[in-house]
From TrEMBL:
It is found in: Membrane. The keyword Membrane applies. It comes from the Bacteria. The lineage of its organism: Bacteria, Pseudomonadati, Pseudomonadota, Alphaproteobacteria, Caulobacterales. The keyword Kinase does not apply. Keywords: Membrane, Transmembrane, Transmembrane helix, Transport. This is MFS transporter. It comes from Brevundimonas staleyi.
Amino acid sequence: MTTVDVADDAVPPTAFRKTKWSVVWLLTLTIFSALTVGGLLAPIQEAVKLDLGLSDFQLAMIVGSATAIPAAILSLPIAWMVDHHTRTRLLIILASFWVVGTIGTAFAQDFYSLFAARLIAGVGAATAFPVLVSILADVCMPERRGRSMLLISIGAWAGVAAAFAIGGTLFGWLEANPTALVPDMPPWREVHLIVGIGAALLVLPLFLIREPARHEVEQANPPMKVALKSFWKRRAFLGWLYVGNFAGGFAEGAAALWIGSVLVRQYDQSPGEFGGWVGLVILASGVVGSIIGGFTADASQKLKMRGAILLPALIATALSIPASAYPIMPNVTLFAWVLFALLLGGTIVNLVNSAAIAVLLPNEERATSLAALAIIAKIVGGPVTAAVVAWMTLLFKGPMGLGLTLTWLGVVTGVISLIGYFLAMRYAPPPAAQVLPDAAVETA
């Protein structure tokens, strides 16, 4: 077995670092697997609800809180481990969690066991992103991180698309062929079993990655007190960045949680009918948005203005606000196009967020900052969104009530997000590579 070597031990500290594309591709494959299993329940959740006799509240708990809880509790401790210990080993452990949780979902018999299985899957899938970005940032130069990160972003959106395409399409096929693979097993269970086994196979390539040396380090292995002081020093920038991410996460979180239900309830579509085209919309928006976000993040760094790297996020947020009307479109075709616009903007914003942290902050602060973003995204996109949508549906009743709820939620929070990114640009620090010497540091 050949080992992918990403160590920079023999490279002088000031030498040009060639991007390790083999590592980037393996990280892309990993995020693809994480997001596929993470979103697999979304297109078939109505079938799960019917089979297990779940209420809307219980369903919201499973699709929202079950992944948000691990993010809230474990993201910061895992980020601390990312900044102080071997990242590649940690990534293998997290990937194993989402495999076990996905396979366990196939055998859940009630609300509690299903919640536990999704919780286990969420331990890995909801906390892996800071690990991936931390490794990625150390295998390419700062001015190329946007373009390198676009592959990770494409992998993430391809995973979300695969969750709908594979989940919905495979569910439809298994529903038509109930004894094709496992006799007497409901189609939604077979879907999770098959995908879980595939995810287990995708863990194996992670053993090929060696731990990279760290670059742009301000303080090697700082104690928690020092790290918190550094974090507080950048509170103006990070605070407004988190406001932008917090508000923007509502529209995307609502889409991720309720798009399947909207299509079933308001447009009379079945998972077998919408799984393929929704997957295509998600994939297309992810690929196009990642390309735009990656190249504009790198190009914007050349502008002579403070926080220029966040400019693409600001523009994308503004353009996404009217796209929040996707769930009240008069037909499925318009629904698909407006949803594409919303997800396109979200992809650009998410990639630029991560690229900005990877470029503007020192190495030892990146994982913690990304973990905070992940916590916000999971909490907002999970239980907070579920609770807000449940409350707002009491205000907007009737056959289009859910669609009106999602639309108003997206518009209001989109405006708040726009303000957050504008102020984050004003308080952005200079790029870390401009103020820190590039001395490689080995992980303890």
